[in-house]
Design a protein that fits this description.
316 residues; mainly alpha
């Protein structure tokens, strides 16, 4: 890869590794629903000029059904669940649990009819990854909220299935109108709650976290991610999925004094190795170069050497 590619890759590893820390800090002062409202408003408005320059929302809104489904499954519901969960779970543990997305993605790909062949290696990866999740949760069960763990599990399901909707029904549309529309639709949905549940006080750290989530982890992240796809393709770009959890753990330990548990030490390597094996290439046609302006290539155009099933990792 070129220096520009490596710079974009490193930036994305960090930018989509820090949302868990920022969410953990923000929900100390702001309710999860209000946080989702602020984040989607900021991200959607910042991306609006890029969306208008790319052709506006006309073609996107004509496919309002898959757009609504994508917005709900990728943004509106997962971000609320993450905020709820991080009121009870550490940011590092949350990031590690979300690392199971590629495992769920294999199952979602099969159910969604992507044509992936799940061979013995991929089945072994699934089982290994599930064992890692079991270790991650089971060894620390005494101090965990099972409801919060279940919420993060639903987030992983949403993050794994939303790209299937994107790839099958929205992939021929320009990137920024799709993302901006999804963010703004989510903001409209949360507006009644967000506008009526203003916090009485927000510490400086909370304000900074909200702004960073909206500006860096949402708006800037999508700009850089699409630039990264343009440089190295969607398959190689998704490798950041395996680095983000490590960033989340490091930041939680260093900045929030979170505890590194035995479950994390054993479970995360198993999840990581299992995800790489489970999301390794199935029997697919050779990839063709994606056409400019598209969010991700259609399912049958993704590279055979893909290291992840999800064409677009979720931004925490």
């Amino acid at each position: 890869m070129s220096r520009r590619s490596w710079a974009l890759f490193a930036a994305m590893c960090v930018i989509w590794g820090i949302p868990y820390l920022l969410i953990r800090v923000a929900v100390r002062d702001v309710s999860p629903g209000t946080l989702v409202f602020f984040r989607t408003v900021i991200g959607g408005v910042v991306l609006l000029p890029l969306a208008l320059r790319a052709g506006g929302f006309g073609p996107v809104l004509r496919r309002w059904k898959p757009l609504l489904a994508f917005a709900a499954i990728e943004i509106a519901i997962p971000w609320l669940l993450l905020g709820n969960a991080e009121q009870h779970l550490s940011s590092s543990l949350t990031g590690l649990l979300v690392a199971a997305v590629p495992l769920v993605g294999v199952v979602a790909g099969r159910v969604g009819g992507t044509g992936d062949h799940v061979d013995a290696r991929r089945w072994a990866g699934l089982l290994l990854g599930l064992a890692g999740v079991g270790m991650l949760v089971g060894l620390d069960l005494g101090g965990l909220s099972l409801l919060a763990v279940g919420e993060v599990g639903l987030v992983a399901v949403g993050y794994a299935t939303a790209p299937v909707i994107m790839a099958r029904q929205l992939s021929d549309l320009p990137s920024f109108p799709v993302v901006s529309a999804a963010l703004l639709l989510s903001a409209v949905a949360y507006a009644p709650y967000g506008l009526t549940h203003w916090p009485s006080h927000v510490a400086a750290a909370g304000v900074a976290s909200i702004l960073a989530l909206g500006l860096a982890c949402t708006a800037l992240a999508f700009v850089l991610f699409f630039a990264l796809i343009g440089e190295i393709g969607p398959a190689r770009a998704t490798v950041i999925t395996y680095v983000n959890p490590a960033i989340a753990v490091a930041l939680g330990l260093l900045l929030l004094n979170e505890q590194f548990t035995v479950g994390m030490g054993i479970g995360f390597p198993l999840i990581l190795v299992g995800s790489v094996l489970a999301a390794s290439a199935g029997r697919r046609r050779a990839a063709r170069a994606p056409r400019p302006g598209r969010v991700v290539p259609p399912v049958d155009e993704q590279a055979d050497d893909a290291t992840a099933v999800s064409p677009a990792p979720a931004p925490g």
